[in-house]
Specification:
alpha+beta
């Protein structure tokens, strides 16, 4: 009986959860990480969390989360701006000979007008000419034309023969055989 009591007390003692000690670390951007050892060098230790609180997820205030998103967007746009500025070639200092224009104001105005005209012509030449859609073509009539009519009937341009009533009497197949409709069947020679 004593053994059973000792065994029960031992099993109850093992069933009590062990408390965990976890460090909460915050980096310069405000991101939170948890570790069971010392915080990394680039982060600071915010607090030590023990027990069940160490594994629970903390809810951060809405304002802090929104500010973190705004900061992230601002950092991304700044990085994009810096990347574009770095990719652009540096402006070259003005160089070459210095030309003094001794012409009067009238000739300079005329020169500016000619330059504007050249720019307009270049801009117009760049665009393709406007395409005016034409009216759609009517489909070509592919029906055979009736010709050579006589007392026995008419022939058409494809070699078919029609009786005087205008019904198809006989026709020639593409392989050269002549066929006649007889009732609901067709007889070919």
């Amino acid at each position: 009986m004593k053994r059973l009591l000792a065994l029960c007390l031992l099993s109850i003692g093992l069933a009590v959860p062990a408390t965990a000690q976890v460090m909460r670390c915050v980096d310069a951007a405000g991101r939170v990480s948890y570790t069971d050892s010392a915080c990394p060098a680039e982060t600071r230790r915010a607090e030590t969390v023990q027990g069940i609180e160490a594994t629970e997820r903390r809810s951060e205030p809405e304002g802090a989360r929104r500010q973190e998103q705004l900061d992230s967007v601002e950092r991304a746009s700044r990085l994009q701006r810096e990347t574009v500025e770095a990719a652009m070639p540096p402006a070259a200092p003005p160089g070459g000979p210095i030309v003094l224009d001794r012409r009067g104001d009238e000739s300079r105005a005329a020169e500016r007008e000619r330059e504007k005209e050249r720019e307009r012509a270049a801009a117009e030449a760049w665009y393709p000419p406007a395409v005016v859609p034409s009216r759609p073509q009517r489909p070509q009539d592919m029906r055979p034309r009736i010709r050579n009519c006589g007392p026995s009937g008419c022939n058409d341009t494809q070699g078919n023969h029609y009786d005087n009533a205008g019904k198809l009497d006989r026709y020639t197949r593409p392989d050269g055989r002549t066929c006649r409709p007889v009732g609901t069947t067709v007889v070919c020679n």
